Amino acid sequence: ALQHYYSDSECHIPTYSLVIRGKLRLHQASWITRGATEAEHHLHKVGMVIHSQKAIHHLSTRLPFSCLGLKAGGHLVPHRFYELYNAKAEKDCLGALGFTMMELELLRVETHHHPHSRPAQELFLGDVHTDWEERVHHRPTGYQEPLQNAM
Fold first, then answer.
1. I want to staple 46 with a disulfide (CB 3.0 to 4.6 A). Which of 8, 36, 85, 146 is the partner?
2. pLDDT for 95-126, tens place per residue?
3. 99 closest CA partner among 56, 46, 148
4. Confidence (pTM)
């Protein structure tokens, strides 16, 4: 998966992106949210690519140098890949970013049939708490805006 973070609400100015690898295991239908499936995620690796100098300054205050593989006095470089999480190497620097994938714990896929066109599929992911401190503990009961299958 890819997650992109922006410094503006219109999503025109990218700050950094996360490259996420892992597995998703579907469980049973949700007892709380009608039409949803509960799921469990397991992360394998998470890396970050920083897109701007402003983001470098902001992230360097939040992430320890050791998390980024830098020695004291080292500098972050835009468009370079930095590993933040590796399950095999027992490296976990995601807490400093407030990163979770809790939105993958509640899923729904809808297919819409339109006359004279191919069916359109939408993926609904669980809602994310707006308070960064609460994101780690939040269990979704609603959805974000759906993602559309472009294929």
1. 85
2. 888 788 888 999 999 898 888 888 888 899 99
3. 46
4. 0.79
